[in-house]
C-alpha cells in the first residue's frame, strides 16, 4: 500500500465535499433559496461517495495493480513503496508528458466503476449495478484525465517562470521533462539582514491537522528555507539580466 494513501483519501474527501457543497450552495442562492439547505446535504453525500471511491482506489485497486502490472507507472510506484519502507530516496527516470497524462487513469477508472456500482446498487437495488459501474468508470476516468491535464499546465507554467527552459525540456519526439537535471546558477548574494515573515500553514495542512496529522516544526522550517532560497536565486537571476541590458 502507498504510504501516502491515508492523506490522499482525506484530501480527496475534503476537497470533494467542499467543492460540491459550495457549488450546491451557490445554486441555491441563485434560485433564491437558503444556501444552507443545499450546502450540507450535497457536502455530506459527495463526501460519502468520495470516501468510498478513494478508499477503494488507494487501498484495493492501486496496490493490486502495482503488484500485478509491469508498466512504467507501476514499476515506479513499486520502487517508491520499497524505498519508502527502507526510508531511502529512489532515483527515478524522467517522466514524459504522456506519463503524466495517463497517471492513475486505470486506477481511477476501475475504482470509479466499483464505487459507482456499489453506491448505485445500494440505492436502487440490483438493476442499478451495471449503470453504476459504467457511469462511475466514465466519470472518474474523465475527472482523473482533467486533473492530469491541469497538472501538466501547472508544470509548464512553473518551468517557464522558475527554471532554465533549455535544460528543463528539449522539444522533440520524446518531450521529456527532466526536473532533476535542472541546474540553477549560484550567485553571491549579500546579506541584507532581511528576515522573511513567517508563513501560515497551507489549507491542506490545516485540514489534515483536523484528522491528527500535524507537520513538524523541522519539516516546516525546511520548506520555508527552500522557498527562501528559490526566491533569492530568482532575484539574483533578474538582477543579472538587468545588468546585461
Write down the secondary-structure element order.
HHHEHHHHEHH
**Unreliably modeled segments:** 163-185, 187-198
Side-by-side strand order of the widest sheet: 1-2
What is the average of the pLDDT values?
A: 77
Percent helix: over 70%
Instruction: Kindly state the number of beta strands.
Output: 2
Provide a count of the helices.
9
The termini sit apart by 54 Å
Please state the CA-atom Rg, rounded to the nearest Å.
Answer: 22 Å
Q: Globular, elongated, flat, extended or rod-shaped: what is the shape?
A: globular
Please report which band the strand proportion falls in: under 5%, 5-15%, 15-25%, 25-35%, 35-45% or over 45%. Answer: under 5%
What this model shows, in words?
The protein has 245 residues and is mainly α. The chain has helices at residues 5-30, 35-68, 72-85, 97-101, 105-124, 129-162, 165-168, 203-210, 217-244; strands spanning 95-96, 176-177. The protein has a two-stranded antiparallel sheet.
Considering the chains and any ligands shown, give keywords for the structure.
single chain, 245 residues, two-stranded antiparallel sheet, globular
Amino acid at each position: 500500500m502507498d504510504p501516502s494513501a491515508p492523506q490522499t483519501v482525506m484530501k480527496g474527501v475534503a476537497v470533494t465535499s467542499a467543492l460540491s457543497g459550495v457549488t450546491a450552495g451557490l445554486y441555491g442562492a441563485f434560485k433564491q433559496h437558503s444556501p444552507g439547505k443545499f450546502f450540507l446535504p450535497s457536502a455530506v453525500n459527495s463526501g460519502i461517495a468520495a470516501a468510498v471511491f478513494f478508499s477503494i482506489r488507494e487501498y484495493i485497486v492501486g496496490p493490486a495493480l502495482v503488484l500485478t502490472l509491469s508498466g512504467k507507472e507501476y514499476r515506479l510506484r513499486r520502487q517508491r513503496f520499497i524505498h519508502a519502507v527502507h526510508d531511502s530516496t529512489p532515483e527515478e527516470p524522467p517522466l514524459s508528458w504522456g506519463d503524466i497524462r495517463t497517471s492513475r487513469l486505470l486506477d481511477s477508472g476501475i475504482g470509479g466503476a466499483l464505487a459507482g456500482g456499489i453506491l448505485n446498487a445500494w440505492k436502487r437495488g440490483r438493476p442499478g449495478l451495471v449503470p453504476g459501474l459504467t457511469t462511475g468508470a466514465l466519470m472518474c476516468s474523465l475527472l482523473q484525465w482533467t486533473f492530469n491535464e491541469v497538472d501538466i499546465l501547472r508544470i509548464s507554467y512553473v518551468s517557464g517562470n522558475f527554471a532554465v527552459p533549455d535544460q528543463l525540456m528539449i522539444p522533440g519526439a520524446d518531450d521529456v521533462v527532466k526536473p532533476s537535471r535542472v541546474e540553477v546558477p549560484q550567485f553571491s548574494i549579500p546579506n541584507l539582514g532581511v528576515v522573511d515573515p513567517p508563513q501560515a500553514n497551507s489549507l491542506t495542512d490545516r485540514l489534515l491537522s483536523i484528522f491528527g496529522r500535524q507537520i513538524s516544526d523541522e519539516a516546516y522550517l525546511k520548506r520555508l528555507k527552500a522557498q527562501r532560497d528559490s526566491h533569492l536565486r530568482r532575484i539574483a537571476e533578474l538582477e543579472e539580466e538587468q545588468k546585461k541590458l
